[in-house]
Specification:
binds calcium ion, 26% strand, single chain, binds ligand C2E, 725 residues, alpha+beta, 37% helix, 8-stranded mixed β-barrel
């Protein structure tokens, strides 16, 4: 080797008989490469246009533990594998994609593992093309970096701190949590964890650049440390995921307040290099031993809670409860079945009439998707559309719907219009306009009969893109309708510029708009007059009662939609109406909207002295509950209400009438982060363990399992079969 370099160095004068550089011919170049190849300083490899290795330096093959002939003809992605837990921020495009895209490959560490031991190589390559620009394959170099790779990886694990934020890293958090849980189990102590995930962090990273993203993470870490104080372990366990360990905390009141404070703190604007960034935060909370005994069980619980917090409209916290596990598996089921739903012909479109506010004659219809699942029956689009959006099949579903509706209405008599829902995810895909154009053309439907319902959420993204897409769609001749108006990102300013034909006032404003001390009617009137000024129609959605109908008509809505007139019905029923000329839908329903209609009807337990009774929960508020199922319980009776999942509330009967009682809780319930309520404290699995049962996380009937054997000889109250009433 020294010979080669000294010859090169002294080459110019050729005094020692070496080869002068200028005179370096192909033969000497080949010998240079060959000696380099043998030296293990660097190896060479090449691939063909299909990504199959066509050359590899023999010493490299030897290091990989395979004969050259075996490696050649293998796909290079099988030979060069991504190293595990590489780049947890996911910002680098995986090697596989880079190779497929025929990019040049900057030095990257890969793992070689073909059954003959592992090694780590750093590879780099440039694509080769012929004169016509046709891709021929790669020429690349490689070198063995196993020693340094292994030592830096170990060093990282040892350091246990996140170099960016200075918080604990994933390894340390996991180690701490595992150790804490093991120690606490022996001393019967509890420990809460919170998982935090930043909302919209990716947008900041993508639009402001990674250095700005890094700066943002640092500021988030600093704010977190300020909220939590010094004694609490905080870690960054992934790109924008954080974890907090809180020993000896099981009061969900305290945890809920803390989670709220964290969300508020992290949602304040950040200043990054003079620019403003706003992100949000979702939090999932789980407490050992209630929600999980082992580390992985507890983390999984917090993860499910976090997932549910994100699903429920971000910027929220959630406590884990055992039904989240059921929901997760239900969702999982939907997810896997949905992929086949189109192929299995399980999807249908139903049509809900939208009537003229004055004549109640059908003016148009809204197409709503229905999934008739072979085993589960009808599944609501409110359940499966969000799943389809998440897993990326909404575009397929959307195109199917568009096609289906356009073909169907072609067969209807007359020229009635149909509105089709377009999800924001569909709208943001690059080929949306193309798909609409294609469907209009292939079905030959008159575009003026097609209306696209788009929700406000498309305005949070790239506003200019949205506006230009609206204009392109209008150019195709279809009509546009703004759906669910008022629920999200309402800014009246975009209405001025966006060419909508119609505004749909969301159900939540229509609901209860006649109730006193309710400002909904004023909001509806304002939207109606604004729409009128802009030359748009208005639909009041979700009209369920006659008083709502009168109110929204008085406020000037031009069109009405809701159960009062008709739910969504199969296309055949619409056709019957159209053919018979029976176009008027007569309002049928309650005279007045009653807010107490959506009460609970859940089976719960009630414990009195030494007896456990089954009762129904009809109404739940922070301070009390209405229960049914026991006959003549005297006012002033002290009871314990078992709300499930280890939640016991001490209460006193304040009202009693026949089989129905109103009880008042000794300590008020607290918000569970979602719409529900929960108790601050729960029965500890340690107590259940002490009653002779195995230690495990609480399930819905944790207390029932222990107390169902309770019975005295004479029960004080008579249980009545509530379904009879
Ligand atoms: P949406 O676009 O707001 O549709 C109106 C929803 O309100 C429908 O629920 C409809 O059945 C329901 N509704 C109508 N009148 C009343 C009423 O008087 N009271 C009450 N409480 N509800 C009423 P549905 O069919 O369950 O659909 C739920 C959501 O799923 C829709 O909300 C829409 O966002 C989405 N969706 C449905 N079909 C499609 C589709 O083909 N594509 C896409 N992207 N989304 C769809
Ligand atoms: Ca709609
Ligand atoms: Ca709607």
């Amino acid at each position: 080797m020294a010979g080669l370099f000294s010859r090169l160095k002294n080459g110019n004068d050729g005094a020692d008989g070496g080869v002068p550089v200028r005179a370096f011919n192909n033969a000497s170049r080949a010998s240079l490469l060959e000696s380099l190849e043998k030296s293990d300083l660097g190896w060479f490899w090449a691939s063909d246009a299909k990504g199959v290795l066509s050359y590899i330096s023999p010493p490299a093959a030897q290091r990989a533990g395979k004969p050259v002939e075996d490696i050649i003809s293998m796909p290079m992605t099988d030979v060069f594998q991504p190293v595990e837990d590489s780049d947890d921020r996911g910002t680098e495009r995986p090697l596989k994609f880079q190779l497929a895209a025929r990019n040049s490959i900057k030095p990257v560490t890969v793992e070689i593992n073909m059954g003959e031991g592992r090694s780590w190589w750093e590879i780099a390559a440039v694509p080769q093309t012929d004169n016509a620009g046709t891709f021929l394959g790669y020429h690349g170099i490689a070198r063995d970096v196993s020693d340094t790779y292994e030592s830096t990886r170990d060093a990282e694990k040892l350091s246990r701190y996140d170099s960016l934020t200075g918080l604990s890293n994933r390894h340390r958090m996991s180690h701490q949590l595992g150790a804490t849980l093991t120690a606490f189990r022996a001393s019967k102590r509890s420990c809460a964890i919170m998982l935090l995930d930043l909302d919209r962090f990716k947008q900041v990273n993508d639009t402001m650049g990674h250095p700005a993203g890094d700066e943002l993470l640092k500021q988030v870490a600093a704010r977190l440390q300020r909220v939590m104080g010094d004694n609490i372990e905080i870690g960054r366990i992934g790109g924008d995921e954080f974890q907090v360990i809180m020993p000896d905390e099981d009061d969900r009141g305290v945890l809920g307040e803390l989670a709220t404070r964290i969300i508020q703190m992290l949602s304040q604007p950040y200043s990054i290099n003079g620019m403003r960034a706003i992100i949000g935060c979702s939090v999932g909370v789980a407490v050992a031993p209630f929600d999980g005994i082992e580390e992985d069980e507890l983390v999984k619980a917090a993860d499910l809670a976090l997932y549910s917090a994100k699903g429920g409209g971000r910027g929220a916290f959630r406590f884990y409860s055992s039904d989240l596990r059921d929901q997760a598996s239900y969702r999982h089921q939907i997810e896997s079945d949905l992929r086949d739903a189109i192929a299995r012909d399980e999807l249908e479109m139903h049509y809900q009439p939208i009537v003229d506010a004055k004549t109640h004659r059908v003016a148009c219809v809204e197409a709503l998707m229905r999934w008739n699942h072979t085993d589960r029956g009808m599944i609501s689009p409110a359940d499966f559309i969000p799943v389809a959006e998440d897993v990326g099949i909404i575009r397929e579903l959307g195109e199917w719907a568009l096609h289906k509706v356009c073909t169907t209405i072609q067969e209807w008599p007359g020229d009635i219009r149909a509105a089709i829902n377009v999800s924001a995810v569909q709208f943001s895909s690059d080929d949306f306009i193309e798909i609409v154009t294609r469907v209009l053309k292939s079905t030959g439907v008159d575009p003026a009969r097609v209306e696209l319902e788009i929700t406000e959420s498309v305005f949070v993204g790239d506003m200019d893109r949205a506006l230009s897409m609206f204009h392109e769609l209008k150019g195709l001749g279809v009509r546009l309708s703004l759906d669910d108006f008022g629920t999200g990102y309402s800014s009246l300013s975009y209405l001025r510029d966006a060419p909508f034909d119609k505004i749909k006032i969301d159900q939540s404003f229509v609901r209860g708009c006649t109730a006193e001390d309710n400002k909904n009617d004023a909001i509806i009137a304002a939207v109606v007059s604004l729409a009128r000024a802009l030359g748009m129609e208005t639909v009041a959605e979700g009209v369920e009662s006659k008083d709502e109908m009168r109110a929204v008509t008085e406020e000037g809505a031009t069109l009405l939609q809701g159960m009062l007139f008709s739910r969504a019905i199969p296309g055949s029923e619409i056709v019957e109406r159209l053919e018979s000329g029976e176009l008027e839908f007569v309002p049928r329903g309650p005279e007045k909207y009653r807010s107490d209609r959506r009460t609970e009807f859940r089976k719960i337990g009630l414990i009195h002295e030494n007896d456990r009774y089954n009762v129904f929960l009809r109404n739940l508020s922070k301070t009390g509950a209405k229960i049914e199922g026991l006959l003549d319980v005297p006012i002033g009776t002290d009871v314990v209400v078992d709300l499930g999942g280890g939640q016991l509330a001490v209460a006193c009967v304040r009202r009693s009438e026949g089989f129905s009682q109103g009880v008042e809780f000794e300590t008020p319930l607290i918000s569970d982060g979602a719409e529900g309520l929960c108790t601050r404290h729960r029965v500890s699995p340690y107590q259940i363990e002490a009653a002779g049962r195995p230690l495990r996380a609480l399930n819905d009937d944790a207390v029932a399992a222990v107390t169902s054997t309770m019975h005295s000889n004479t029960k004080s109250f008579v249980e009545v079969e509530i379904s009879k009433f």
